[in-house]
Amino acid sequence: MSENRQLQLRVALLGVVTVILQITLVSQLRIAGGIADLVPLVVLAVGLLCGALSGAVFGFAVGFFLDVALFHTLGISSLLLLTIGYVAGRVRDARDPEGAFVPLFGAAAATLAWVLGYAIIQFLLDVEAPVSGVILRQTLVTMLLNMLLALPVYALVRSWLVPALPADPRRRRRRATTTSLSPLQRAR
């Protein structure tokens, strides 16, 4: 099986398992008034590991599956998760995603974009929903919970995808040379 096909199968299975876990288990656990959300964390991790195009496609597919599974308005989750996956992939292209703080700050930004984006789109679609100060507290608690889960989720996604990822040319090590580094220096 080619590396590309193996990566596609691993990413597809990751998306299905993530949505099923989120719906059946994680969304039922309320901690300090907030609910952790694995979906934007996994989309962020795939974007950081696979790039902008793969992150965007994965985000769209997971969002569509989430909307269908929860009988929500089709396209809202897809649009938001597509954006999260694409931006995470662009961060990968611009910076080194292996830094310890990238998943943490990425989780905070992705969670905030996910919650606020969903609220704004629901408001624009004229969906009746109660608005109060409790929502702000729930958003902050959800963001903190996701930041706590960011590193373990990133590590799990990375360990699942790394065997199928192609070698990144930016990370190639330079071959050791026995000659001098400068052509102007004479060998001794």
TrEMBL record:
Keywords: Cell membrane, Cell shape, Membrane, Transmembrane, Transmembrane helix
Location in or out of the cell: Cell membrane
Record field: transmembrane: 6-26, 38-62, 68-88, 100-121, 141-165
Pfam families: MreD (PF04093)
Taxonomy, superkingdom: Bacteria
Listed InterPro entries: Cell_shape_determining_MreD
Membrane topology (UniProt): Multi-pass membrane protein
NCBIfam families: shape_MreD
Assigned protein family: Belongs to the MreD family.
Annotated protein name in UniProt: Rod shape-determining protein MreD
Organism this protein belongs to: Svornostia abyssi
